[in-house]
């Protein structure tokens, strides 16, 4: 068994520290990851975050869900975007 790559090991250590988890990681096979199939988070290019990302949005009262999606598309220069579920806030 081999140790994970330096970047992968750093990521696992940071996850452990963030979660307060004390784990010993065992890597069965140490193989490089083709960038077409994944990235270590801090090495992922910004354009990939935009292309495949999710925005968790707390929409204020007023604009409709469709208006907010249109704003996001305009801000990021996207052709396609959408929303899942309702973005309407609870009414008092």
Through-space gap between termini: 58 Å
Rounded radius of gyration (Å): 19 Å
Counting structural domains, the number is: 2
Give the overall shape: elongated
Q: Strand content of the residues, in percent? A: under 5%
What is the overall pLDDT average?
76
> Count of DSSP E strands?
0
Order of helices and strands: HHH
What percent of the residues sit in helical stretches (DSSP H or I)?
25-40%
Helix/sheet category: mainly alpha
- Spans of at least 5 consecutive residues whose pLDDT stays below 50 are none
Main sheet makeup: none
Number of helices: 3
Explain what the structure shows:
There is one protein chain. This protein has 92 residues and is mostly helical. The protein folds into 2 domains: 1-43, no CATH class; 45-82, no CATH class. It is built from 3 helices and no strands. The mean pLDDT is 76.
Topology readout:
Blueprint: H1 6-19, H2 46-52, H3 65-76
Short summary:
By secondary structure, the chain is mainly alpha-helical. The protein contains three helices and no strands.
Key words describing this protein structure:
3 helices, 0% strand
């Amino acid at each position: 068994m081999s140790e994970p790559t330096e970047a992968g090991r750093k990521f696992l250590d940071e996850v452990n520290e963030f979660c307060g988890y004390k784990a010993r990681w065992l890597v069965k096979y140490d193989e490089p990851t083709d960038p077409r199939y994944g990235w270590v988070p801090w090495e992922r290019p910004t354009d990939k975050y935009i292309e495949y990302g999710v925005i968790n949005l707390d929409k204020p009262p007023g604009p409709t869900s469709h208006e907010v999606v249109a704003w996001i598309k305009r801000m990021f220069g996207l052709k396609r975007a959408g929303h899942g579920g309702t973005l309407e806030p609870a009414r008092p």
